[in-house]
Amino acid sequence: MATIIDGKALAKKVNAQTQERVAKLKKQNITPGIAVVLAGDDPASLIYTRNKHKKAIKLGINSILKKFPADVSQEELLTEIDRLNNDDSIDAILVQQPLPAQIDPEVITSAILPEKDVDGLNPLNLGKLYANQRGNYPVACTPRGIMRMLTEYGVNLEGQNAVIVGRSILVGKPLLALLNNANATVTMAGSKTVNLPSLTCSADILIVATGTPSLVKKTDVKLGAVVIDVGINRLINGKLVGDVDFENVKERAKAITPVPGGVGPMTIATLMEQTVDLAQWRHHG
Ligand SMILES: NC(=O)C1=CN([C@@H]2O[C@H](COP(=O)(O)OP(=O)(O)OC[C@H]3O[C@@H](n4cnc5c(N)ncnc54)[C@H](OP(=O)(O)O)[C@@H]3O)[C@@H](O)[C@H]2O)C=CC1
Ligand SMILES: Nc1nc(=O)c2c([nH]1)NC[C@@H]1CN(c3ccc(C(=O)N[C@@H](CCC(=O)O)C(=O)O)cc3)C=[N+]21
């Protein structure tokens, strides 16, 4: 039976540290602020938006939500981003993905000031990550949170086979760079991958981020693998599940993240932490 990686407990620890840092900044008259831009009504985005707003308020971070209908124009969004770029009370800007079809996500992420890009999706920040540059720059919160979980649970990455299923700019791509920078041997799969099970069976560390419930079954996992489930899927019966058949896979894995209570809470904790990082870097360099 696998160790259950407790994202909720770890997030609590990270949040406590963030709360202390916020209190210190407030003594210097600095209150970190985050702005979330939401266009349309993607269900996973709605869960994320609600949970992070609650957490920000609890930690003493200012949080504002800019909501747009699904038929919003690109110009309207760009005008809002420009306003937030120039708003001194805002340290962190997050534009929810996925965006409606008429919006080009590349145009949007490129418009966010790199110093306020809390998702690390601006090409400058993503480029720094891929080049494994030193120094301060934001990194996508879900991948950064996953790396923290792996470290806290003592998972050795060096020389290990890491397989990522899903190649989005938000999860798969930054994770590829982070694992590669940590000297893992990384393979990234997507919907076109031929014989996915044979690939996932070779993984010492398997990370799944596709949005397909039960994509990974017990027979798709190597005995003793570490399995990280990023997926957030709302079933018709209202139940929240990941992309991995948790109940069966946990019999084969060495360690596994549950949904809910795994990657999700760590994404939020990392988002709060990085909002405070951005505030500190902007005010103190
Ligand atoms: N827990 C958390 O904190 C977070 C959870 N999520 C969740 O993670 C999931 C993925 O989101 P996101 O990263 O934005 O991905 P996207 O929805 O942007 O893309 C999905 C990726 O999965 C791949 N894929 C889809 N179906 C299959 C399949 N059957 N076999 C192999 N690959 C497949 C696609 O391949 P291709 O490129 O070939 O089309 C694509 O690369 C969603 O459920 C989302 O809600 C996202 C962010 C944070
Ligand atoms: N620009 C951008 N960045 C993102 O990081 C991003 C995004 N867009 N769009 C949507 C996805 C999805 N996502 C979630 C994060 C946390 C939970 C979360 O809190 N999950 C709890 C759910 C608890 C519950 O409410 O039931 C858990 O897994 O335990 C869910 C989903 C971030 N995403």
- Strand segment count: 11
Name the ligand types.
NADPH dihydro-nicotinamide-adenine-dinucleotide phosphate, 5,10-Methenyltetrahydrofolate
Strand content: 15-25%
Task: Please work out how many helical segments DSSP would assign.
Answer: 10
- Estimate the mean pLDDT confidence: 97
Helix content: 40-55%
Short descriptors:
single chain; alpha/beta; Rossmann fold; globular; binds NADPH dihydro-nicotinamide-adenine-dinucleotide phosphate; NADP; multifunctional enzyme; THF_DH/CycHdrlase_cat_dom; EC 3.5.4.9; purine biosynthesis
Notes on the structure:
- The protein has 285 residues and is an alpha/beta fold.
- The chain has 10 helices and 11 strands.
- The protein has helices at 7-27, 43-59, 74-85, 105-111, 123-130, 141-152, 172-181, 196-200, 246-249, 263-284; strands spanning 3-4, 33-39, 62-68, 92-95, 161-165, 185-189, 205-208, 226-229, 233-234, 240-241, 255-256.
- The strands form 3 sheets. A 6-stranded parallel β-sheet has the order 1-11-8-7-5-6. It has a 3-stranded parallel β-sheet with strand order 3-2-4, sandwiched between helices. Strands 9-10 form a two-stranded antiparallel ribbon.
Give the SSE layout.
Layout: E1 3-4, H1 7-27, E2 33-39, H2 43-59, E3 62-68, H3 74-85, E4 92-95, H4 105-111, H5 123-130, H6 141-152, E5 161-165, H7 172-181, E6 185-189, H8 196-200, E7 205-208, E8 226-229, E9 233-234, E10 240-241, H9 246-249, E11 255-256, H10 263-284
Parallel strand pairs: 1-11, 2-3, 2-4, 5-6, 5-7, 7-8, 8-11
Antiparallel strand pairs: 9-10
Helix pairs in contact: 1-10, 2-10, 6-7, 6-10
The chain binds NADPH dihydro-nicotinamide-adenine-dinucleotide phosphate and 5,10-Methenyltetrahydrofolate (GUE).
